[in-house]
Amino acid sequence: xxxxxxxxxxxxxxxxxxxxxxxxxxxxxxxxxxxxxxxxxxxxxxxxxxxxxxxxxxxxxxxxxxxxxxxxxxxxxxxxxxxxxxxxxxxxxxxxxxxxxxxxxxxxxxxxxxxxxxxxxxxxxxxxxxxxxxxxxxxxxxxxxxxxxxxxxxxxxxxxxxxxxxxxxxxxxxxxxxxxxxxxxxxxxxxxxxxxxxxxxxxxxxxxxxxxxxxxxxxxxxxxxxxxxxxxxxxxxxxxxxxxxxxxxxxxxxxxxxxxxxxxxxxxxxxxxxxxxxxxxxxxxxxxxxxxxxxxxxxxxxxxxxxxxxxxxxxxxxxxxxxxxxxxxxxxxxxxxxxxxxxxxxxxxxxxxxxxxxxxxxxxxxxxxxxxxxxxxxxxxxxxxxxxxxxxxxxxxxxxxxxxxxxxxxxxxxxxxxxxxxxxxxxxxxxxxxxxxxxxxxxxxxxxxxxxxxxxxxxxxxxxxxxxxxxxxxxxxxxxxxxxxxxxxxx
Length: 491
Prior knowledge:
Layout: E1 2-4, H1 20-40, H2 46-62, H3 68-102, H4 104-115, H5 118-136, H6 139-156, H7 161-178, H8 183-191, H9 196-225, H10 233-244, H11 253-264, H12 268-285, H13 291-300, H14 309-314, H15 319-342, H16 345-354, H17 360-378, H18 381-391, H19 393-398, H20 403-415, H21 425-434, H22 438-441, H23 446-461, H24 470-481, E2 486-488
Antiparallel strand pairs: 1-2
Helix pairs in contact: 1-2, 1-16, 2-15, 3-6, 3-12, 3-13, 3-15, 4-6, 4-10, 5-6, 5-7, 5-9, 6-7, 6-21, 7-9, 8-18, 8-20, 9-20, 9-23, 11-12, 12-13, 13-15, 15-21, 16-17, 17-18, 17-20, 17-23, 18-20, 20-23
């Protein structure tokens, strides 16, 4: 767990605090670099982000007076906060390769094609992903294991991969928001000084509405997208799988072990690490893979020859080394976010956004805008929870609102939208793990749009907006003023 102590507006020396105009300069420059580099020049994101880092560093040094040492510290703090995310990216890439070699993911595809039909596949994917994530408390664990199998099953049923990815993410983030085991759920409660179960209860109705609407949309989409499966297609896919892998219930040992440890309470990173070892041993014991070969697969990936192009493509993976491309983007984005945070840019933007609020509706809207802005600028969902959660709590207190209104708002708009940002750690992880670009799955990730929209409706109508008594307000003020830091870990 990494201690998070974001720089707030009041903490910055007034003589070194950037003006709103100055804070906007590196933000506008960064967005310009990304637009020119990615859209016009068709570059990968690494170098446009590097341009942004160079510009922000020079601007912070020569205009804002931030020393090079302070800039290095900002980058280091941001990378330290994201280190568990980076490690999970590497481990999941190795896990996917070992589970393919072990027959775990091919086995899930084989049996899933027998149990699911095109018409019910999308809504069932969302529901199953929500249940599993609620149990294990990690949307990333669900996406990196069952999510990969769902992508293969959907392709076999004729469902476009972006639709399947959207359904996986909808279920994963629904379960994540309601799970007491989730790091982001605990973090949102911690930074707002809200009881964990008060926070979960405050999210329940909004989450249920957004998820139910999403499931209905997936049901409609499934009916329109599935069409008619050519005769013998499923049998042909199953034959290709069975001709390449030993298909037996024993291949699910890595899956059962990994999820069992997660449900028991083991954090995501060690649980996924155990999954890698279990995958290697299953590949050796069930598939007859050599011990050294199994670890080579974990490092370099899989390229099976199944005799069917669709199946071979779905079961191709890059292994641990394949995570390097994603991780370099994550490192660059986290470094840029660390510079912006240490220069006071994020604190100034959050402060000025907070000044726009004049009532429950505008305060809710400001919280949504602040959380999404932090996702865009800092590329890390923890910042989208921590900075608005700590910066805006006095405004909620001044309007007599309970802190669970704020905790609900930062999670409903921060956690759920992180995977819509292509350069954020969440967007990078999901795109790399599921094999679907962020902008391709985004239109089908209904929960990511509906969750903040339902939250905004709450703010406008006042529904579920709970107020404090005077005694509760004094108690909350005393508790939040005494808070010194929060902790966060991997998703």
